[in-house]
């Protein structure tokens, strides 16, 4: 009789052991953890009125890897997104420069923006390396330059009182750079 009870209790322990094992691996449990993207974007948005929380969540969530990332991984994703948007803006300038004959001043502004974007792209590349090697302060400085870039491009048009043909691009570039900076700042 007592061996029977012992055996039953052994089976029960086994049963609960596997139940527990199974649960920790189940996606249901993972889903109840607050999502790293929401959590990180919330933390960044709190410290920066320029940071667009919706854009932060949407742009990070568009990269599948983000969902299984830590904050450092998200910082790298955000820098990559910033770089891609800046490259897009730069290709836009290239098109504008080819499109038609234009006033000299406009052409100078566009050339200024090309330089600004090129510097920014190399800053973002360097910042990615810096994040990967744990040099967060260095990354911060470089991403800060990338945050300033779209404004520097816009200024050239404003100084000549002409309408910027890159307003939308600069707004997008700025929005993403602010997010990259915000997440990197969380790394310390
Ligand atoms: C924030 O981003 C969302 C999504 O891209 C956009 O629809 C919204 O206009 C942005 N808000 C501001 C204040 O720029």
From TrEMBL:
The keyword Cytoplasm does not apply. It holds the Pfam family PMEI. One of its GO terms (molecular function) is enzyme inhibitor activity. It comes from Phoenix dactylifera. SUPFAM superfamilies: Plant invertase/pectin methylesterase inhibitor. This is Invertase inhibitor. The gene is LOC103706404. Keywords: Disulfide bond, Signal. Belongs to the PMEI family. InterPro entries: Invertase/methylesterase_inhib, Pectinesterase_inhib_dom, Pla_a_1-like. The keyword Magnesium does not apply. Residues 32-183 form the Pectinesterase inhibitor domain. Gene3D superfamilies: Invertase/pectin methylesterase inhibitor family protein. GO terms for cellular component: extracellular region. Residues 1-26 form the signal peptide.
């Amino acid at each position: 009789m007592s061996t029977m009870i012992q055996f039953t209790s052994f089976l029960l322990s086994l049963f609960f052991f596997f139940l527990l094992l199974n649960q920790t691996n189940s996606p249901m449990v993972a889903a109840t953890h607050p999502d790293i993207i929401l959590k990180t974007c919330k933390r960044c948005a709190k410290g920066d009125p320029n940071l667009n929380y919706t854009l932060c969540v949407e742009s990070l969530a568009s990269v599948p890897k983000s969902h299984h990332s830590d904050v450092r991984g998200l910082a790298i994703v955000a820098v990559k997104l910033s770089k891609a948007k800046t490259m897009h803006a730069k290709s836009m300038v290239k098109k504008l420069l080819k499109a038609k004959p234009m006033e000299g001043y406009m052409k100078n502004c566009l050339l200024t923006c090309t330089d600004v974007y090129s510097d920014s792209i190399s800053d973002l590349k360097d910042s990615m390396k810096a994040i990967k090697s744990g040099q967060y302060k260095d990354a911060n400085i470089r991403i800060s330059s990338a945050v300033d870039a779209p404004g520097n491009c816009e200024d050239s048009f404003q100084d000549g009182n002409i309408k910027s043909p890159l307003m939308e691009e600069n707004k997008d570039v700025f929005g993403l750079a602010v997010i990259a900076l915000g997440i990197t700042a969380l790394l310390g």
